[in-house]
Specification:
Layout (H helix, E strand, L loop, with lengths): L16 H8 L8 E2 L2 E2 L1 E2 L10 H13 L10 H20 L7 E4 L2 H16 L17 E5 L8 H10 L2 E5 L9 H7 L4 E7 L11 H11 L2 E5 L11 H4 L3 E5 L10 E5 L1 H6 L10 E4 L4 E3 L13 H17 L1 H20 L4 E3 L10 E6 L4 H10 L2 E2 L1 E3 L4 H6 L5 E5 L6 H12 L1 H4 L5
Parallel strand pairs: 3-15, 5-6, 5-7, 7-8, 8-9
Antiparallel strand pairs: 1-2, 4-10, 9-10, 11-12, 13-14, 14-17, 16-17
Helix pairs in contact: 2-10, 3-10, 4-5, 11-14
């Protein structure tokens, strides 16, 4: 049996308390105290902390290899290029892609915009006959879900506006579960693109990728997967998932900021017109026109994020060495611990469906207390969480709240961290004089 991640649902041996304690020693920032209290970092869904090896990797690149890649015949430039492309190979392998199917971007938001603008260029007639499969116009439809982060919603809104296509969405129910029972009527013969998250950034729930991909394939639509919250936390094999495109960010998976990636099936990337143009992505240039390299170079104009790519590869190796199955199992344990603990605290509503598959993330609404006040109270106890709408206003609106408080775990989160969070949450309403 396979899960929506494309991997076996057999429960793998999870990390032990002792192993997690050893892992924490790799993360310098986790040793900080905040306001005189040990830091309990539960905001990894926003950005992860970085192990020492990742920090050292980026510095080592600058000290040992720094040169312009793909542009020089001297030995240092050749070495820098090899290191850069080795990083692409490492990260590609981490998600089950071929090396030439991974495009470097600044983050997942840029990756999704790259797709939307490339399709927009195709809709304007650029890219020749091969790009015609990406062209949209009046009568065509783009389908997303009500669960999406704004980064996987607004680019498609804008593409629809530019091309005259119609944007539709698969709604959620009152608990935040995706209405797959309605999806078959929404994803229809006019659907050209189906874009959806693998794991929701607010609720931490794992979507049924196989079911959504099957709906898209039935009507010949392209699938776009936002994997920002799955690649860091679950074993992901993009070929097993069967999606056409996938975007993810480095800073959420122990890597540095300023680096992300777009996966695309080779034949699709090579048929797409470029988005950014300039140096390094061309073959021939005249004063009248230009011809472009195959992917991934055709989407990597200008000076690239070389040191960040190298550090991201180190992060991928670190995660692979720990074991993504084991990380996922540990976080499921933490998620259950959070859910069970929160359920016992009066006045706390855990957002999301009760029995859904989740990563170690919980978003809550505290009766009578604004999420920002909740966050500040927790911060006074040394507990760092996320507050606000988490770039998912439509989902919060569907759940009947304007904002929430989100705690998100990672491989370096301990059971003690979760217990400290629960203890702090239990004190919120009393501190603000709400409830009995």
């Amino acid at each position: 049996m396979e899960s929506p991640t494309g991997h076996s649902t057999i429960e793998h041996q999870r990390l032990t308390d002792a192993e997690v304690a050893r892992l924490r020693a790799d993360f310098p920032l986790l040793g900080r105290a905040m306001g005189g209290k040990p830091l309990v970092y539960l905001d990894s869904g926003a950005t992860s902390q970085k192990p020492r090896c990742v920090l050292d990797s980026e510095q080592h690149y600058y000290e040992r290899f720094n040169a312009a890649v793909h542009r020089g015949a001297h030995s240092l430039a050749v070495e820098a290029t090899e290191v850069f492309e080795d990083a692409r190979t490492t990260v590609s392998r981490f998600v089950g892609a071929d090396t030439d199917e991974l495009v470097w971007t600044s983050n997942a938001t840029e990756a999704l915009n790259l797709l939307a603008y490339s399709f927009s260029n195709a809709s304007a007639g650029l890219g020749g006959p091969a790009a015609g499969r990406f062209a949209l116009g009046p009568g065509d439809e783009i389908v997303v879900t009500e669960l999406e982060h704004h980064a996987n919603l607004i680019p498609w809104q804008e593409l629809a506006r530019r091309t005259g296509a119609r944007l539709r969405y698969i709604p959620v129910d009152a608990h935040g579960a995706l209405r797959l029972d309605l999806a078959e009527d929404i994803v229809g013969p006019r659907t050209r693109i189906l874009a959806f998250a693998h794991v929701t950034n607010v609720l931490g729930t794992v979507l049924d990728v196989a079911a959504l991909v099957a709906l898209a394939r039935r009507v010949g639509a392209l699938t776009v997967l936002d994997a920002c919250q799955s690649v860091p936390h679950l074993p992901v094999d993009v070929k097993a998932l069967g999606v056409d495109f996938m975007a993810f960010s480095g800073h959420k998976m122990l890597g540095p900021t300023g680096i992300g990636a777009l996966y695309g099936r080779r034949e699709l990337l090579n048929a797409m017109p470029p988005f950014l143009t300039g140096g390094s992505m061309i073959t021939t240039v005249t004063m009248e026109s230009a011809e472009y390299l195959p992917a991934p170079a055709r989407f990597e104009a200008g000076t690239q994020r070389v040191s960040q790519a190298v550090a991201l590869a180190t992060a991928a190796d670190y995660l692979a060495e720990v074991g993504m199955d084991r990380i996922a199992s540990w976080e499921r344990n933490l998620g259950r611990r959070m859910a069970d603990g929160l359920a016992s605290i009066p006045g706390i509503r855990v957002l999301g469906p009760d029995r859904a598959e989740r990563i170690g993330t919980a978003a809550i609404d505290v009766e009578g207390v604004h999420p920002h006040d909740v966050g500040q109270f927790l911060d006074s106890r040394g507990v760092a969480v996320r507050v606000g709408h988490h770039c998912a206003q439509p989902l919060h609106r569907a759940l009947g709240v304007t904002a929430s408080t989100r705690a998100s775990t990672y491989l370096y989160t301990t059971e003690g961290d979760v217990d400290a969070f629960l203890d702090a949450v239990a004190g919120v309403r009393g501190f603000f004089g709400v409830g009995a």
